[in-house]
Design brief:
The chain is α+β, with helices and mostly antiparallel strands and 484 residues long. It contains 16 helices and ten strands.
Amino acid sequence: MTVASDQLFVVDQGEQASIPPEVPVGRQRAFRAYEPHQQFLLPPSIDDWLPEDHEARFIAEAVDELFDLDAIYASYVVSDGAPPYDPTMMLKLLLWGYSSGVTSSREMERRCATDVAFRFLSANQAPDYRSIARFRRRHLSALDALFVQTLALCAEAGLVKLGRVALDGTKLRASASRHKAMSYDRLGPKIADYEAQVKALLEEAEAVDQAQDEANGCDRRGDELPEELARRTTRLAKLRAAKEAIETDARKKAATKAAEKARAAGAADAEVHEAAERAAQKATPDKRSQRNFTDPESRMMKTTEGFHYAYNAQAVVDEEAQVVLAADVVQAAGDVDQLFSMTDRMEENLASTGVDDRPDVVLADAGYCSEDNLAKATDTETDVLIATGRLKHTERVLDAPRGPIPKDATNRERMARRLRTKRGRADYARRKAIVEPAFGQMKVRQHAGFLRLRGLEGAKGEWTLHVLCHNLRKLANARAVAPA
């Protein structure tokens, strides 16, 4: 046996092959035909290029046959200029892009030319990134209905059992830089500095206008702002808005805290309102409070990569197949105030899908533990198990499962006892295994940890889009492994 050094192709020594002189040595008839410039006799079908079991086909089927898109189509009444792209096609691109981790509208535009799955879904059309971005922003409100429809499909497929469900939050990095922000104690001096600069620029512009009027007459228009003045005026407006937002937040927090204190003391409604107003008037912002100029609605939060501007994404996940039952995004870094708002949202979603059952138990970590939540957990129809963390030295450790529960036991002590029972330990041990994989799958597969859209409304819509795609992938996987 010999090997052609240029092609690394094995040739039998005894074979006397006749090789045309124009064929380079080493290229034998054993190779499959390769003609890059060969013309097709009939036009090729893009449908033949995508494997039959490809997930993009399931996305296309879901949009075509399973989703109700009347609300999206109803928003198109009159179109000026060229007709818009078909919403069905645009939704397929958006869902497949987010399902496969392509969240950039510019990258989606490129994929429509280079990726077989995107070309299949777009039917060889190539919408530009502006059209994709506008479609995404325009139909954020319609995503909630599509999420509920997907949840109903998951329930019909047996992916929702409502045994144990787990609630947790995760941080989503906002589309905002830490370097495009300013703290409250720096805003005041900076505003004064910019006001002085703007005043000086206006005086200079006025002096120039007067000199030109004397030289050329007073007929010139002269109403254009100098570029430097326009830039500083815009910056000054952003600084003032940031300062006002920080002061407003401080007033709200002070009023809420004073109202809760007065209500706990048994004050009447009028006295509670009065105490809240007094506290709001006296409130002073924390000098370290910050606002970001790129996304003013984002908040500084601790993430796995350190402190960044972010949003707090919440999700309730079912144990059976890790299907998300409810989702939301809030600006608060802590989870404590989201427990019952999320369980209420979950029950609304389930009712909308026709599921009347309640979960056997809702699992939440210590971030949701508070006196109010523990008190509500004893009154709600849904069984809620909340981690209490370490008990204070003044609190008792009640024996479990033996021994009577003291009548004067606090809600926190009772919950801690429940967590030490055999059933409580078995239930809570499943919390992390239920909800954390869902977050991990979305952040790794769908790049859900970094938001593209700015503002709280955009963050809510994009998180809903991510959990919608997550549930669709669960449905597609279940269909793929179902017996024929």
